[in-house]
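Record 1 of the preview.
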Amino acid sequence: MGLPRPSDSRPLGAEQQSRGGKLMFRIPLVDYEWQWGDFIQGAILCAVPLGIIPGMQAVLDIPFDVAAMMVMINNFMYLWHTHFGDPSVAGWITPGIPLYMAFMANYAFGPERVQALIALQIEVAIIFLLLGLTGGTKFIPHVPASIRASVVLGAGIASAVKIFNTTNGYIFKVPWALGISLAFSFFMLYATRSLAMKKKYAAWRWIAQFGIAPGFIIGYIVGLLTGEFAAPTLAYGLIPLPMGELFANWNLFGVGMPSGAIWISAIPMAITAYILAFGDILIVGSILDQQNQVTRLDQTAPDELVVFRPARNSIITGGRNLVEGIFMPYLGLCGPQWTGGQAIVSQRFASTSKKDFPTYWGGATSLFWGMSIFLGWSLIVTALKPALLVGFGLTLGIQVWLCGYVAMSMVTNNLERGIAAFAGTIVGLIPGKPYGLGTAVLLWLLLELSGKGVEEKSMTA
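->
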């Protein structure tokens, strides 16, 4: 019969076991099962977090070894969420990265530029903590559907622009590698034929458990064969841990407290970062709501309730930003969720039997255990270095797809769809600015609010 599993005692449709009261602390192997598929997938997807290193080097002139160590530490901190009751697969506040870089470019290379990033990240932390601790996140479910859909759709459009813009889009830098990687991953995750193959063929079901990792591997091989990137120069052992250099030159203790002028100048960018993160909060809530309604392969009803609480997510996100802002200011900042990773875990959980995927928490945590541990190996970091654009472009592509169908599922009539399309386009084409969100609010006030309770008769013109 074998030993009982942590999920065996969970009543149908209930939350997975935890301890610590409101903290809902979960211990590996005691409160959730290990998922080797997600662990290996996380190891393979190390290329995604490593993708931020070129940006960190460009804007901060930071050594590769210091940046790689920061990436690893940042990844371990993602585990704060899933081990303290927040189901979010966390990540950066990704769409704003070009804006953060432009903000820091106003300051000279050296301590002043590092201080600018410190001020920005600590102010972002304060916003998250204030809203989380005061219950300010409770308004999120009450935001009109058209406004929420505008933000979600805009996040997808912004990601598409990063991939396909003709100036420096990723697809034009590694067209065959990224294009084939995206096509294979989309087929595996979303194709009706793929779902049928999972039920019919054990081999395909085994491959599919690794999510977008097989797509990345195929893209990596294609990139090497086509010459879109060179073969890696490998190193061995554990990655260096230059903590002394970090504390001397790249954090608050080394460069000193930012001036009052820097703190003030960072306020608009901190608000902008939260506006972008607000979209991620909406997205993760919507994904998990849909997941809770899915009938899994061997169940007649959803077998596990996964509860997302925006206040908890905001407090943990704020804590991550505060710690990093003081000890290791990080270009991507700390965001509420990583849409690509959220899609990977939720999609696999929803399309896999309870026998093979007993609890959501096993997948969400094992993914980051694998990614974080393998980021500590020089062999992995150097092997993946040539394909950073493929890994980062792949996760952005999944975000485009996911944001599109989540936004469309939020709206129920043509008026809401029109507002979402119009304002969402502005959000996506001018990311990091309040224009799109402001347009969504204005259109809602102008077109929807006055007609509240009036049945839609005809929206065709």
